[in-house]
User: What shape does this take?
Amino acid sequence: MRPCVTISLVPEARGGPFVFWDDLDEALREARECGFPAVELFAPDASPLQQADLKSKLRDHDLELAAVGTGAGWVRHGWTLSSPEDSVRIQGSDFVKSLIEAAAPFGAAVIIGSMQGKSPSPGERADALGRLRDSVAPLAEMAEKSGVSLLIEPLNRYETNLLNTLAQGVVFVDSLKPSKLRLLADLFHMNIEETDCAAAFRAAGDAVGHVHFVDSNRRAAGFGHLKFPPVVEALREIGYDGYLSAEAIPLPSPREAASQTMRAFQQYVEQPSA
Ligand SMILES: [Mn+2]
Assistant: This one.
């Protein structure tokens, strides 16, 4: 397992759970100074990934691009992959496609979180899930051809009524087999929705493709009341060897949230017996 830290380049997402904000160069420098080997980018669109110098900037700071979020499609445009409106779904799908294309040269994963949308009413949930599946199937196929890992993220009940738990995520992922779609397991959402976070990881097994490493209150790991040792133990048991990415509120400051994440990573993952 390796640590990772989030950077938002989306002004409309201000107040959201991203550690570093706005200034990519500054964020890359700080991420490296804190000891992170990788960053996760929340971009307004594909353009920051298409900048000719992003690769060299990452190389200069010895950083990998672990993953790219697609939530700006929802935050900035109101697009989702489950909307009853064809045009909204198509625009949402095109947006995710553009990010898959842009992420491919970096070997970065692409995340579908808020772009899953929500059902207008509980009675329409099955239909909305069906539309989500129909939208994600071709995206998963495209991602696989591009060598990109596509991730779908269960969210807490206040954000969606489609995929809330890892178990629901596993059913969704299984319904799209043989695609290699996998789950992004976010500890903030899991703390709200799961009966037992460690048991949820064990049950999800190799469906877990990425982890948002964050505390119960969405602050940096260690700044809330989540019990990390059983979670890390469960991740080891399932053989998870991906990123633990800090998608956390930047309190008391971005730098402090980043440093605290690294301290928690060292304490819970690198030296769990110390
Ligand atoms: Mn998340």
